[in-house]
Design goal:
4-stranded parallel sheet; 2 domains; 6-stranded mixed sheet
Length: about 325
């Protein structure tokens, strides 16, 4: 396995500079009071396409285009929504054909833009099946598979989030990161260890889907039973061959889990206190800090609010506590 370094992350930053938004890092007074230290929110919910995934998607697509020598390779991916939307935007910008396999339960707020960007959207029963179908298509030689998390270029693109955090707030002592497939967490940990080696990096899973929590305990990747969760973007087992597990084992300080009630409370807190809309997957870090699961180390905390793509009816139900 090739080792991803801070050099690749800095190269990704240059490669995607024209495509992504440098999102703000803002202090949250209510979370700072709850944690007892300054807490800052990295607002990837304000990113192009509404989620951090655009960083890795554009880096992967542009890197593939550079390596193809002018050819137009067909891309294929599996996505719970945000990665597919981001890769569809990148593919359209570069003139690359794209097939996206996604669970049919994914929010229309994520699925509709995939089609509007011109990708071939194919719906499956759940995320795990979507990933199997995408990899099968690539294995037949019909397309190049771009994993939403187990891809060096995707991880390097995601790591640019952490670079911006430390540029804006060099004294950050802890970064709290949503954890699904582990691409964002891996990229954040790689960048953090290079820039501020003593900073803690904490991953947050949901109780309904926590494959990395169980895998770290087992010392190897294990499959878990996935339950229903509002955080659809984090639900699903990791690819058995994922490269993210090694980075999480070596570089991440710890993992915590949050429940559905904590997620809803965090989303309401962001809306009411910060006037921010976050999908549940994007709010897990806030839920972990607000519920006291992240122990402050005497220095400030940065929480990545990773996405804001949520259907309006689901958002209304959360905000009205239905």
């Amino acid at each position: 396995m090739a080792t991803i370094s801070a050099i690749e992350i800095l190269a990704a930053r240059r490669r995607i500079a024209r495509d992504v938004r440098r999102t703000p890092l803002v202090r949250s007074d209510w979370l700072s009071e709850a944690a007892g230290v300054a807490v800052y929110l990295k607002l990837e919910c304000l990113q192009v396409t509404g989620a951090f995934k655009v960083r890795g998607a554009f880096n992967a697509a542009r890197a593939l285009a550079e390596r193809s020598g002018g050819a137009k390779p067909t891309l294929v991916t599996a996505s719970a929504g945000n990665h597919g939307r981001a890769l569809a935007l990148a593919a359209r910008a570069l003139g690359l054909p794209l097939v996206v396999f996604a669970p049919r339960t994914a929010p229309r707020a994520k699925l509709d833009p995939i089609e509007s960007h011109g990708a071939d959207l194919r719906l499956e029963a759940d995320y795990d099946e979507a990933e199997r179908q995408a990899k099968a298509l690539a294995a037949r030689g019909d397309a190049t598979f771009v994993s939403p998390y187990s891809d060096a270029d995707v991880i390097a693109g995601a790591g640019t989030v952490a670079v911006e955090i430390f540029e804006d707030q060099p004294d950050v002592g802890t970064i709290v990161v949503p954890l699904g497939g582990g691409g964002l967490l891996s990229g954040t940990a790689i960048a953090s260890r290079a820039i501020s080696p003593d900073a803690a990096v904490i991953g947050v899973e949901v109780e309904a889907s926590h494959p990395f929590h169980d895998s770290l305990k087992a010392g190897r990747l294990v499959e878990v039973q996935i339950g229903p969760t509002l955080a659809d973007g984090l639900a699903g087992n990791a690819d058995p061959d994922t490269i993210t597990f090694d980075y999480i084992q070596r570089l991440v300080s710890g993992l915590v889990m949050v429940g559905e009630s904590e997620l809803r409370s965090a989303m309401r807190g962001l809306a009411g206190r910060e006037h921010l809309i976050a999908e549940a997957a994007g709010a897990v870090g806030v839920a972990a800090v607000a519920s006291g699961q992240v122990a402050p180390a005497g220095r400030s905390i940065a929480v990545i609010v990773s996405g804001g793509n949520i259907d309006l009816d689901k958002l209304q139900a959360v905000l009205t506590d239905r």
